[in-house]
Amino acid sequence: MYRMLHERYPYAHCELDFDTPLQLLVATVLSAQTTDVTVNKVTPLLFSRWPTAADLAAAERTEMEEVLRPTGFFRAKTASVLALGAAIVERHEGEVPPRLADLVKLPGVGRKTANVVLGNAFGVPGITVDTHFGRLARRMGWTDEEDPVKVEHAVGELFPRKDWTMLSHVLIFHGRRTCHARRPACGACPVARLCPSYGVGETDPDKAAKLLRYELAPGGQAATR
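Structure (tokenized):
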């Protein structure tokens, strides 16, 4: 199933824009309860004003709140970014640590966020269990676990470690584009014949095609990566 999904999304990648580990870490924290598209709209201004961890830690709270307002829960997110910047300065001399054990000790950073940073900024394989990944892993019969950490470990046992980061991208892409939470496009799914949950969504191929999103939607913009 993974091979077939990889063929559908060979260009799957982290959809948060970043140039440095710090930028990816902050962007991932900001992505809670909002879309990557929204985060990508605010981070250029955020990082142009406060490019380093020390700058983030010393930022004026109300000014940062206005920058982060479009992401929702902007006061809480501002507090998280300020605390995150301060912790990186105090504990790691201003540099994002490349180890899971260190990352998860930072304020507001859990295993999901840590694995995003490790896999995409440091090249360390990791499984990112967001809502899409967990939903698909259960729908496709890979695990019955609900807890994200248990899902991570269960799925990790099924795949070589070298595939973990790309596996995460592929499942997240599929969850966002085809296997939606409320109305999956079963009739347009490349793994339909192997999926134990086939039929929970629209099975008619033509109707299912209309449910596809992003570059897969009929008439949608072709993927560039």
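The chain has a mean pLDDT of 96. The chain is about 50% helix and 0% strand.
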